[in-house]
Specification:
about 525 residues, mainly alpha, 4-stranded antiparallel sheet, 18 helices, about 60% helix, DUF6350, transmembrane helix, transmembrane, membrane
Length: about 525
């Protein structure tokens, strides 16, 4: 009920301005005038002095739909946003409140205004409020998980394409309307001046024009699709013009009354462009590698949904206009549906599927999008890393043993002696420490069993030939001589030191060297 009251409160200031433009305005009269305006906002036809008025403005309808959707969104969030438990009560409450108020408002109308069919007003108001509440609930809670899973794939791509198609048709109607107002600007200004010569009348005419502006956009869309607009016995379209009397209203003055040139048929390129956009969106949503059937289904479904929506809106935007020479105002809803289905569906299917695949030709390989190329590079690097990791696991230890040289110099190896269990090494800091002797098994050769590694020549107790195992190094300590005074003395001292040093022993032959000798012998 809160949404109903808010929608009614928003219409009261508009009623005040309309009454002031007519020279008589009071708050009591504004509240009374707002009642039929609320019915008109719910697209409920009324009769004024026995004359049916079915061409109702769409802008108040958009305002009411927005208010109900926001109210339903807020309500379902307060209840916990459980789609199965809370959505039904919220939608039912909004629809029931609108239906009940529609029946009450029909009974409160002034004597010269009445509702054509009371039961239709109840059903229409409830249906409109229920649809708006459903939109608000879905925006708050989303679809149930099982519905979302079923809609994955081409149905979700079709919904995206339908939104693009609706926006494209609306843009087409906007461009056509702006072009008509610009070309016939003089006629539009004359119609406005004749309808509202004073300031108050101008304000009222301006409010009515703004309220019917969405109807004019839908009429421009119908004109761009080809069926055009029918006003009474007159017909106005890009291919056929049958002139007739027009209502003295500024928006009707934008309708071209003369024959349209041949280049006017180029207006059909606007919906065709919208169809191409629909196809590209569906193709992008599914991916270029998606099956042709899915892409064609998405494009066709999007075009069909857009065409059905355009036909429904065209039917709502028209209606009876109080009898006389201007009745009825028709936007050809069936023609709009068929034209939108053709002009959007064919380009959308071609853009989504591709010309080569439609003709049965195999498309040439392309480089793909930047995202696809980046994914391919990442996949290639992953395969290379996995291949190199597996190779390292199979041959890594042996390759590292062969490729890693032994650390230390030949002089350090000559100082290391081996015993039965431990070996003694000279620490770089000058302190000796024991380290376990690690005997590495040699590789078996192809012509016989592997030979054990030869140990260094040593005494039984592990000492070197020159002394005990923990004795001093083979190099003798030398007392420092006199400090050199000249460069010649320094050179001579270095020569003497090199002459006194014993020659380094031959480096120990490694397993790799033995393997190479065995290979050379074989």
């Amino acid at each position: 009920m809160g949404a109903v009251l808010v929608g009614y409160a928003l219409l009261v200031p508009v009623a005040v301005l309309l009454l002031m433009s007519g020279g008589s305005g009071s708050f009591d009269g504004a509240f009374a005038v707002a009642v039929p305006m609320w019915l008109a906002a719910h697209q409920i036809p009324v009769e004024v002095d026995g004359r049916a008025l079915g061409v109702l403005p769409l802008l108040p309808t958009a305002v009411v739909v927005t208010v109900v959707a926001v109210a339903a969104n807020w309500s379902v969030r307060r209840l916990g946003c459980r789609i199965r438990h809370d959505a039904g009560p919220v939608v039912a409450s909004q629809a029931g409140a609108a239906a009940a108020v529609a029946v009450l408002a029909g009974a409160l109308l002034p004597g010269d205004v009445s509702v054509t069919t009371p039961w239709a007003s109840m059903v229409g108001a409830g249906l409109l409020a229920g649809l708006a509440a459903g939109v608000g609930v879905l925006r708050a809670c989303g679809l149930p998980p099982e519905w979302s899973r079923r809609l994955d794939g081409w149905p979700r791509a079709a919904s995206s394409g339908a939104r693009i198609g609706a926006a494209g048709l609306l843009l087409s109607g906007t461009l056509v309307l702006l072009l008509g107002l610009a070309v016939r600007a003089g006629t539009v200004a004359g119609s406005f001046a004749g309808l509202a010569p004073g300031v108050g009348e101008s304000l009222g005419a301006l409010l009515l024009a703004v309220g019917y502006l969405p109807n004019a956009l839908v009429a421009g869309t119908a004109w761009s699709l080809g069926p055009g607009v029918a006003i009474g016995a007159a017909q106005y379209g890009p291919f056929d013009v049958q002139a007739g009397p027009l209502p003295p209203f500024p928006l009707f003055a934008a309708v071209p009354t003369e024959a349209v040139p041949l280049w006017g048929a180029l207006v059909l390129l606007l919906p065709v462009g919208a169809g191409v956009a629909v196809g590209l969106v569906c193709r992008r949503a599914l991916g270029a590698t998606a099956p042709v059937r899915d892409r064609a289904s998405a494009a066709g479904s999007a075009a069909g949904a857009t065409a059905v929506g355009a036909g429904i809106v065209a039917a709502v935007a028209g209606g009876s206009l109080a009898g006389g020479p201007y009745d009825p105002v028709s936007l050809s809803p069936v023609g709009v549906l068929l034209a939108a289905l053709v002009l959007l569906g064919i380009p959308a299917t071609i853009a989504a599927v591709g010309i080569d695949e439609l003709l049965g030709r195999r498309p040439q390989a392309t480089r793909g999008s930047a995202a696809e190329r980046a994914a391919a590079r990442r996949e290639g690097r992953s395969r290379d890393d996995a291949r190199s990791t597996g190779s390292d696991r199979r041959t890594g230890p042996a390759r590292r043993e062969r490729s890693t040289p032994e650390r230390g110099t030949s002089r350090d190896r000559s100082r290391t002696t081996s015993g039965d269990e431990t070996g003694i090494r000279d620490d770089p800091a000058g302190e000796d420490r024991e380290a376990p002797a690690r005997d590495r098994p040699s590789r078996p050769s192809s012509d016989g069993p592997s030979r054990p590694r030869k140990r260094d020549a040593a005494t039984p107790n592990g000492s070197s030939p020159g002394g005990t195992g923990r004795g001093p190094s083979s190099r003798t300590e030398r007392e420092p001589g006199p400090r050199p005074r000249t460069v010649g003395d320094l050179v001579a001292q270095k020569d003497r030191e090199h002459a006194d040093d014993p020659p380094d022993p031959a480096p120990e032959q490694t397993d790799t060297g033995r393997d190479e000798e065995d290979d050379a012998e074989r």
